[in-house]
């Protein structure tokens, strides 16, 4: 007994030392920073949080306080934030997980820290629990808090980064939910705030947990090609170093290797193999300007010098120095042809630009710590772009989309899109999301301009409203007072502002038309001594085959339905004779008046024998897809999963289970919006069933090429060719093969076999 007690004491002592060491490291990092040294408030926050979380452990078994310390460490070291943020990070879980309130925090640490902790608590508060749109609601709250104090979202990103770093302890379904959310929301958010390092790590961790085998394969490939990359880097940078030394520039040159996630993303998008990705290596030149005022000039002097050493790619120059990205990023990007015959991108930036690129807005926030730390405004947000961004968020939140998925999409479209630069007729520059149209631009300038827009002149040429703008376009909007917002506009605008305004105007106009319809119906009924009731509305909806009352009133208001004798007969019960073509309300009762065997057929077609998830279903356990039960799952056409693919399950609204690839775009939205319905799914197939797979082949045509290709597929690998399409144009052979295969390994074996054929240049799989 004594021995056991001693062991417990030893464990407590070890835990206490671990916690003390972690906090000491945090304080050392803070003291090494450029911030005013407000150690007292940080120590007070740590002691308070340590006491509040006493006795609680994480899933990994370590004391819970290690998590807030780790989040504070990220805020301090990786974001460069000050004492207020570090204290709030240490306290971020106290209100949510213990009996302390926001008022307690305010009394002890002042209103600023309390406001941030309150914001963080509201984001993760479980009031939306099991509701479908919980994640979107949390995100909405996150943005609301962010528009009050940007530090709320910065600490939330730190919290998410630490959760991702320690995700191993979670069950797979929870891992897919958290990784999906991270990739869909937090990584783009970090990118938009200019936190490049954190964005890259969040992407890589998401990829690692969702596709562990593919991640390991890419890591292995990167390690095995490291030596050849080092040689290329040394040979390429040698003449650059000599030139910069002669120019007397103080600089460092770094190799930047593409992240595993970026490589995999490119492999997926371009349908290419690892060996076909040529921009894995980039070179970064970071210089110290002799004079702050000459920073931009020095960038271009280095650019000119590089052009004398190597030939540059004419279409790949990016000047982010004179036109910084909306997240503050500045650099010149130029792609040069190395002596080894490879294109290499070179990024030229000053030390200040480099710090901005790695730490984003956090790198140049000015902190004005108050004397007592109570209520003094610590951030002077003089960054115009950031304020514009927050203003956009507020506009979206004023009239958010009712549907969770739409809301997330609207936010993503507007806030995370890459930017283009567009000029007004007077030469002012406007930053717009890539893919935006002339109508988006009109709404960006003014709602009146957008709602009365009839067309635009782009570079002095007349274009329609749906014309997509490119960087450098000069745009003049043409209006007419007789123009009104059209419902079709919603299909081609992409910015949140335009979508929100169009929907708002249409809703307002729709309400006016419905009101007019209600007045027409009321007048009709009064003339015939009847009252407006739900029963009356139901009968008229059934007669005109309209599903909702609002649609009926809309149709009456815009006169697409005109009330007459038929309506009167229906309401008075005289309209017994139904036309065969219009079954009226009967079409909403699917089995009425049908034969028994017809009913059974329809019922089986409706249910198709899909598995129904019971209420007490354990969502932490994986589901296994076997040859026998595969038909009880729904396989969506969006990603066409086959055995061997990394997949997940999703419980739909009817409690059936859909199967998606983990990399599927639809699945990424589901993980973000309906994370509590995600299941871990695994294959347990015995290679009895056959599945469709389509492979395309391209190469230099020659005699016998087709024969060799079909021989590889059918003879060597015993795979059935279901259908093939062949074309030959100017010596280029192209074939599309629809195959019947057992699983993913069959597809890879066939593709690898095809790549060995002489003359074959490209082999891809299409969904």
TrEMBL record:
Pfam families: ACT_4, HD_4, RelA_SpoT, TGS
Domain HD span(s) in chain numbering: 64-164
Annotated SMART domains: HDc (SM00471), RelA_SpoT (SM00954)
Keywords: Kinase, Transferase
UniProt GO cellular component terms: plasma membrane
Gene Ontology biological-process annotations: guanosine tetraphosphate metabolic process
Gene3D superfamilies: 3.10.20.30, 3.30.70.260, Beta Polymerase, domain 2, Hypothetical protein af1432
MF annotations from Gene Ontology: kinase activity
InterPro entries in the record: ACT-like_dom_sf, ACT_dom, Beta-grasp_dom_sf, HD/PDEase_dom, HD_domain, NT_sf, RelA/Spo_fam, RelA_SpoT
Domain TGS: 418-479
Pathway entry: Purine metabolism
Task of the protein: In eubacteria ppGpp (guanosine 3'-diphosphate 5'-diphosphate) is a mediator of the stringent response that coordinates a variety of cellular activities in response to changes in nutritional abundance.
Family the entry assigns: Belongs to the relA/spoT family.
Record's protein name: GTP pyrophosphokinase
Organism of derivation: Prevotella pectinovora
